[in-house]
Amino acid sequence: MTDIPLKPKNETFTDKQWQAVFDTGDNLLISASAGSGKTTVLVRRVIEKLKSGSNIDELLIVTFTEAAAREMKERIQSSLQDAINKESQQARRNHFVKQLSLLPRAHISTLHAFCLTVIRRFYFLIDLDPVFRMLTDNTERILLKEEVWEELRDEYFEASDQEFYQLAENFSSDRSDDGFTDLIMSLYNFARANPDSTTWLNQLVQSYDTTHGLAGNQMYQTQVKPLVLANLQTAIGQLQAALQVAQSLESMEKAVVVVANDLEQANRLYAYIKEDNVEQVYAQLTSFDFKRYPTYKKEEEKELSKQFIKPRRDHAKELIKDSETFFAQPPEKMLELMEQAKPLVKKMSEVTLSFIDRYQKRKQAKGVLDFNDLEHYALDILQANGEGSEASSYYRDRFEEVLVDEYQDTNRLQEAILFWIRKPDPAQGNLFMVGDVKQSIYAFRLADPTLFVDKYLAFAQQNGGRRIILAENFRSRKEVLHFTNLVFEQLMDEKVGQIPYDEAAQLVPGFSDFPESDAFNTELLLYEKEVEEDPTVVDDKTEGELYLVALKIKELVENKFMIYDKRAKEKRPVTYNDIVLLTPTRKNNLVIMDIFKQFQIPLEVNDAQNYFQASEIQIMISLLEIIDNPYQDIPLVAVLRSPIVGLNEEELTKIRLAKKNDDYYKAFLAYLSEDDELASRLRTFNEQLELWRTLARRRSLSELIWSIYQETAYLDYVIGLPSGRQRHANLVALAHRAETYEKSSFRGLYQFIRFIEKMQEKDKDLAEPLALTQENAVKVMTIHASKGLEFPVVFLLDMTKQFNYSDFSTRYIFEERLGAGIQYIDQAQVRYDTLPYQAIKQQRIQKMLSEEMRKLYVALTRAEQKLYLVGSYKTKEEALKNWQQALDQENLVLDPALRLKGKGNLMDWVGMTLMRHPDMQKVFAEAKDSKKVLDHPAHFEIHWVNQAQLQKELNKPKTSVAEDFSLSTSEKTEIDDLQQRLDFVYPLEKSTKTTSYQSVSEMKRLYNDPDDQQLNRISWQSNIEQQQAQHYRYVTQDLAKPKFMQADRIDPTTVGSATHSLLQLIPLTTLPTFDSIQEKLRQLVNNHQIEKQVAEKIDLTAILWFFQTELGKEILKKPQLVHREQPFSMLKDARDVFLDFHEADAELLIHGIVDGFIEYEDHVILYDFKTDAVYNEISRQQFIAKYQGQLRLYRQALEQALNKPVQHTFLVLLNSKENIELFTE
């Protein structure tokens, strides 16, 4: 440690920041908490080194992203220019000028970029061809991997390698071998993140060693045993607490007996685990007897049971059942499974090594390197078989210091590279690492936070270096920081979070200019969802939460909530631009956009939806598909309907009718010979399509796309749409992606389309265009995207979203240190978890939860001034049940088992940390019974809003923001002029409110007198209210109710639709029986075409009855003449529908589906099924009247289409088992 200069009195840096700037002589780890100014410290350290005489090209500065590298260069440049302006000594000025000239060549970059520099300079040390290009395009990389893998896989299959066959069968399904491919690709990615991929892969089989029995297996001793012991310790503690409560009342003797029995068994199990008596452990777990808890009627006993005894006992039961997962089989069976899995693991490693070798050789043959190669080749160059090379010596001598930003996101391969660059002698340590392990959230990039943690703990003892902790936060108000400390001092430690949140890690307020106010306490917005979710719509709870957030944002902006402006150094009203919505994933972004649009809240959404779901991209892909092959109905209709051609439904129907029973493209070609305006437009488009098809064969793919943009002016068109700039960026990205695609060895439109299809199947994006900003809009982004950013007001959404365990449901699982765990499938196709699989799975789950905790830390620390946490529970009682388990905790840090319990979520974590705070006693009376009451400066508020309260808020009339403004005379004149324009009555107004498309199911409701032989017309004006209430499509009115307000029980319409689906699929070649109908229904349920609950409501006896009637027998007699579920379209004059609609040439396109008809040579029999309940003769007559108008439309449509009369029309009432013939007069 060198002497640190005295800090001037006017210096704004804290003592710790000052030390971080000037301390040298050791490897240094700067643990910089959120908002502590780490980048400022890093830049200042560089500038001070330059001031002391160092040169900028003698420093290696490693950043996590290229953007961070650019920012670092810009800040150093600015600081140098400032130093030049202030420096009076010419020699020092010249030195600073020299540094500016060296800056473009300085080693300030990502580690990948530095590795490329190493390879360019020392390629000859590993006999690498210096002529190569970077495989930067993800498209080409994926396709090249697939090509190599398919070749290697086929060779193994052709060689009749039985172990390979068994491996493939173990990980493939009966439909494809995609699972097997995913296994090898996943293992490849894991192996390549290791400095020595070969050794790591070859050691995987060691975890399956059974030489010393189950208790002697290393995986059991280091992973399984500690975890089970920890679970049992917590379970015993919960049972002891429950027993103590039960013993407080003599009348609860039965409960005492039950809980004491549980406790005795748990203690016995704990002893067996400690003794490594695995046989007894298995026996005890499989025979563990949880007695039935007694029922109490007295209020005091019921409350004690409900609030204190049963929740603790349930938690203990859950922990003990979790331990059972490790002992699902007897110990001898577990050993047998490991022996059977061992050859599969060995072959899996062999195949992956073969793939690595083949893939590397293929890339060498093509003269390409990918990013992973950069790190591995650089390490090979530097380490020279573990002894260090001339390249290592060169860089160790060249670099005075190696500075690493975001060190917590480094992986083991990158750590090995840094080892061969830094000084080898710890006494001359020149490695300066800056980061915050509490913000390590990049496990999906295989970042290893334990590298940071190991140094953090070791350097605290000055073992190998020193650590400096920057705890002062210059970003946030004390209210945000105190709340964050309250949460994480109870949640985060070495077990969950991977670092202790001790006094040294506490966030300390560092910005003192915030004015004092009670308005900035953190608030929890909780939606109490009283009804079950409707599985057929977007998540109901999500909509409820978002309506709460939208209302709160409106309230903040319209009531001018005051925040402090750091730049202006004064208070001002909050704007939309000050607010961010942080989300765990992008899944709900489209819902957010929809709801905020209703409130007219401007949004800027970072990656609002999957790239392929953007309408402009879907249209372009459809156009490319028909350029490749026009005989594709869906893409062709999509293009014709799109703005590129601009046809409406009526025109599309006319084309369809040109060749009703042929491909749509043939109908399209047939219509070209017509002599009307539509045919003229189609001929123009067809000529253009043929030109593009010719161009696709002769020119590059990107040239084709740009030609389309130019000739259709599509780029200009999308600019004028909402989010036009983003749409424009999407289309440009598609052209660029096509260009990079063709730089690979893959060519052609057909291959490009196939590639896109694969990307869509794997749910991957083709491109990620840059987000485009708006001046004043609420920002929406993921927690990952928010890292490094700050916002005055933060809403953290969807906090009751369950943690995602889907990654742990595959047949394999990997971990950097523990290796590979697999499931074994025996000859009977029974799947078993091996011990390594279970152990690694639990370790990965713990690491996943640790990262979720760190994501929560990142989210909370984005807030400068006001923090809102948003979630939902069915009831307050559900939240209390989840949170109150913390009340038994006597230690500050909550028990690991509470933090690691399954099916958890972020809000449950936060809720548990709040239960022991005095503020919680205002919310839950039970909080008064906490064993430990926290004396903490944090304060918070919890707001519960139930469905009725939310609906009441949504129903309040909206006031115009314009009412708040006073207008000048000139502005009033402009408004009067505008008002005259707005008051203009368009003569064809009714046409604008009447869509040209109607379904029969909508039209049937319009008929006042269904017995009239002509279509009865309805008063357009008189039925507006009715239409609005029923949300008819043909009149545009106010928004519908939120979906979360809609009922979710199985309604008769759903059962009716399912009945129609079943009737459509029953074979007509044989007489249906009850068993055959039931079997067909079972198939539909198994194929997820009908929900099981709905299937149970279908009356199968009514269907059997129908086929025994005369009409049913006629259908079975001539099944070849029967048409079922036949769609039709027909044009009707709008004046035939609406009484007071007088505009000529206004037609409606009416669409419907006929349940069935029998088509004879000279006539037709029409029938339609109905499942409505008919209770008496009155309701029967009303029912017939209700549907006559609909059946009359069906008759007219069939007679027009078939040019045959409909002689008989039957209404089949399945509920009352009647066939009623209509129109018999």
Automatic annotation (TrEMBL):
It comes from the Bacteria. The lineage of its organism: Bacteria, Bacillati, Bacillota, Bacilli, Lactobacillales. ATP binds at residues 32-39. Its EC number is 3.1.-.-, 5.6.2.4. One of its GO terms (molecular function) is 3'-5' exonuclease activity. Residues 504-788 form the UvrD-like helicase C-terminal domain. It catalyses: ATP + H2O = ADP + phosphate + H(+); Couples ATP hydrolysis with the unwinding of duplex DNA by translocating in the 3'-5' direction. Residues 11-477 form the UvrD-like helicase ATP-binding domain. This is ATP-dependent helicase/nuclease subunit A. It comes from Tetragenococcus halophilus. GO terms for cellular component: cytosol; DNA helicase complex. Belongs to the helicase family. AddA subfamily.
